[in-house]
User: Which sequence fits this backbone?
């Protein structure tokens, strides 16, 4: 071949950004984010809380007290580090695994449980929560994020749309379309691809011939970054900069966070031993986001075992209360569902409303 | 003969056709090493290799578009859509392209693919997993839509679908996957597409159903028998094209009919069958032809499924309404 292969050297352009290594040591002094001690502690609190919530949700699912649930352990830095860069007025478009971000964006925990149980109140965001409920259709949220961002820009608001998908999601047409649209409109959107190495059973190597997902941004003329998704400081820093650029009118950013889910895909019968090895699990668990951030905070005298235990106990207590509250929610009725179908009920549904009122009164 | 669940019968049919025809390819999300999220393709990659049974990137429009292209290369694709609610992602590839391949090429090309997919309510899945979208598919000329109600039919219909030279949507009701076993021959056999099956004979009223609703109809028939009412139960097996002859023959004998579908009432398969009956047999009818369906909402959040889904009691009620008309 007489032409230079344009892919040559691309790896160097998308090298993984890391600030805190596996031992909790700072490896990139220049890029340590500007966070107060309180912020650092709050970040850790959120990660610990989320780890407890994950363990409890799995147990509650096994007892039949929760329904659909996608485990989060391993992904805390990726999920909460990215969300920590958001403002309350920013708009969140999560996927099914991103319930923790929704909770810290303001969704009450009992509603997250109702979502899991398949009760529509779990999808009803409170007035002050700028978010849609977790997306089940892989990729649908990505084009919508471009639309939210277009709206912010159009209305002159200094806010961003933040959306999440996975390594599998980055194969959908909607993924390319969403990133491309946001790029074309220079709309303030942030696309986080949490690369946890698998889409259910399919390893990321089988999704694409591309070395990284981050580089897919380049085709759309949008900056793409590859980040250590188990390093909460790196995730926060990259997303924060993306947010600053977005509200400055500089357009969207794509961020790939390298991470791992320790648990099964969901609690509906997935068996990870069919597609991954203990060795692989061990390798990733050594990079655990909580372990390394804990070490870092302990080194700064900001964290202790007592503090952690306190957070664990509070979390357990809040979870218990939230489940109780979810149990007290009125049973969902078909007539409720009929009433939320349209602004005004058409004739067929008016008729069916009467039919089901009668059924439900029996 | 062996006792098989419906999912085992489906695996068995795929195995049969992979073995019979080297042009058959099975692919989709998680169908390879993982054997599919319901294990429908369990062991197939191991036996037939990654060239013939393989995982795809996560993109439904890509999966079906791939199958359309493969059709021009003498291949016989059997793609899986992991849950049928995700077919919306692939609507152009299915309805806009595969269904029209023969037509738009004046017969030069065809699309002999079989799109397999789980669907159906009652198993507490998240949004867009359980929806009954067969009506949408049936409205598209160029597609055939097959829905088995039991393991024996599933095997014979799936083999026939794969051999069919036009695109077939093969829908597998999740509730039936493992709910019961029955005798399924190990050797190959086929069941014609477009032919209904009279599951139970009766002279008083005709129930027309398909998929999981066949079992609700049979249960309703059992209950009615105790009151001296003999219902005839027709399992459509294929909802596009519909076996009108079998329906009409039955209705002209019983003079009454209830058409049952798990899908919402608006438009739909049942509505179309009711029209066919009245257009052909109005003078044979003793009562209006009635429908049992779900209400016209989006498929409900799972907590409300049990009330939302039609059941055998609704069928008994409509049958009595017809008989007392
Ligand atoms: C359009 C669509 N196709 C398929 C699925 C089924 N499905 C749910 S999650 C999943 C894998 C997603 O993997 P990834 O994007 O990597 O996210 P992760 O689950 O790893 O967080 C699949 C195939 C779906 N929900 N929506
Ligand atoms: Mg993944």
Assistant:
């Amino acid at each position: 071949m007489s032409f230079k292969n344009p892919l040559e050297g691309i790896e160097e352009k998308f090298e993984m950004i890391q600030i805190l290594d596996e031992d909790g040591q700072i490896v990139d002094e220049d890029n340590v984010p500007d966070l107060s001690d309180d912020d650092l502690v709050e970040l850790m609190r959120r990660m610990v809380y989320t780890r407890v919530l994950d363990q409890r949700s799995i147990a509650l699912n096994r007892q039949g007290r929760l329904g659909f649930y996608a485990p989060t352990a391993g992904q805390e830095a990726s999920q909460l580090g990215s969300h920590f860069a958001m403002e309350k007025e920013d708009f969140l478009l999560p996927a099914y695994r991103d319930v923790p971000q929704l909770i810290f964006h303001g969704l009450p925990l009992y509603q997250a449980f109702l979502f899991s149980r398949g009760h529509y109140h779990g999808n009803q965001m409170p007035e002050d929560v700028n978010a849609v409920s977790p997306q089940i259709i892989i990729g649908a949220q990505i084009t919508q994020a471009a639309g939210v961002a277009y709206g912010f820009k159009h209305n002159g608001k200094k806010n961003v749309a933040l959306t999440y998908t996975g390594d599998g999601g980055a194969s959908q047409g909607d993924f390319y379309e969403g990133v491309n649209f946001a790029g074309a409109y220079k709309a303030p959107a942030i696309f986080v691809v949490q690369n946890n190495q698998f889409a259910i059973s399919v390893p990321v190597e089988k999704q694409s011939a591309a070395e990284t997902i981050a580089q897919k941004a380049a085709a759309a003329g949008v900056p793409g970054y590859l980040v250590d998704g188990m390093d909460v400081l790196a995730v926060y820093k990259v997303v924060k900069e993306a947010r600053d650029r977005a509200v400055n009118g500089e357009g969207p950013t794509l961020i790939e966070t390298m991470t791992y889910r320790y648990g099964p895909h969901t609690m509906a019968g997935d068996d990870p031993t069919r597609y991954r090895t203990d060795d692989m699990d061990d390798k990733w668990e050594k990079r655990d986001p909580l372990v390394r951030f804990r070490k870092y905070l302990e080194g700064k005298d900001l964290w202790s075992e007592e503090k952690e235990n306190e957070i664990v106990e509070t979390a357990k207590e809040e979870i218990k209360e939230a489940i109780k509250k979810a149990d007290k929610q009125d049973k969902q009725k078909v007539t409720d569902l009929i009433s939320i179908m349209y602004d005004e009920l058409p004739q067929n549904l008016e008729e069916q409303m009467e039919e089901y009122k009668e059924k439900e009164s029996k | 003969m062996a006792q098989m669940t419906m999912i085992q019968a489906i695996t068995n049919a795929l195995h049969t056709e992979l073995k019979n025809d080297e042009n058959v390819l099975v692919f989709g999300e998680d169908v390879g090493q993982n054997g599919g999220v319901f294990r429908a393709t369990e062991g197939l990659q191991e036996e037939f290799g990654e060239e013939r049974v393989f995982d795809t990137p996560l993109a439904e429009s890509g999966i079906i578009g791939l199958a359309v292209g493969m059709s021009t290369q003498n291949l016989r694709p059997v793609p899986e859509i992991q849950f049928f609610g995700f077919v919306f992602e692939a609507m152009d590839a299915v309805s806009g392209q595969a269904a029209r391949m023969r037509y738009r090429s004046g017969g030069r090309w065809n699309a002999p693919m079989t799109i397999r997919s789980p669907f159906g309510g009652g198993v507490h899945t998240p949004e867009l997993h359980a929806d009954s979208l067969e009506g949408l598919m049936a409205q598209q000329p160029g597609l055939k839509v097959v829905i088995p109600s039991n393991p024996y039919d599933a095997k014979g219909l799936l083999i026939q679908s794969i051999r069919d030279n036009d695109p077939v949507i093969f829908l597998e009701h999740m509730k039936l996957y493992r709910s019961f076993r029955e005798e399924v021959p190990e050797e190959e056999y086929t069941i014609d597409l477009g032919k209904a099956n009279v599951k139970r004979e009766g002279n008083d009223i005709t129930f027309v159903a398909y998929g999981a609703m066949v079992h609700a109809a049979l249960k309703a028939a059992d209950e009615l028998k105790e009151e001296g009412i003999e219902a005839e139960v027709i399992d459509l097996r294929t909802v596009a094209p519909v076996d009108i002859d079998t329906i009409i023959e039955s209705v002209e004998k019983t003079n009454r009919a209830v058409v049952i579908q798990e899908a919402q009432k608006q438009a739909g398969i049942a509505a179309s069958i009711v029209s066919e009956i009245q257009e052909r047999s109005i003078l044979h009818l003793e009562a209006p032809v009635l429908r049992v369906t779900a209400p016209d909402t989006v498929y409900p959040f799972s907590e409300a499924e049990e009330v939302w889904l039609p059941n055998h009691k609704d069928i008994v009620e409509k049958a009595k309404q017809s008989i007392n008309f």
In short: The CA atoms of residues 217 and 224 of chain A lie 5 Å apart.
